Please model this.
Amino acid sequence: MGQVALGFRSLLIKGVVFFIMAALLAWALGGTLWPRAEIVDLDPVTFQGEPWFWRLSVGGREPGRLSYTIHHGAADDASPLDEQRWVEVAGPRLAGEHLYYAGRTVAGSWVLERVSARGVAEPVAALPDRLAVERQLARLAAGLPLQDSEQIAGERDRVIDPAAIGPAAFGDSQ
Model:
């Protein structure tokens, strides 16, 4: 039985040495055995006396995947507003007593959300694309009301369809 115990002890020592050497090699090559996400905080906006900002994280348990979360507070002690993860974002923008931001979900839909004075996020509108998001955020920043879905569709068609503007706008004199 002594030989079996010595064999297990030898195997345990070899396993520990292997693990330490693998960790040192990973460290020397600039990596880690446990991947962690790279995190960047984007420019903050002050709302209710504290900074609100997007936190971008890339990698970690899902290599190559990026996600944004909205955070508030000092960067080193920031807490996420909720657990919603976005793949593309716009804002945040201040308008009146509210903070507005928009994000695109993994499913591909854009959602405009508003944070009230109580610090609670609520969805305001589902928007068709990035153009509509930027237009609505610009309207809010200028003190204008949000447009309804028909107005958004009409403006989108006018901007995207060159025939709606006319050939004179493009230098054609025909």
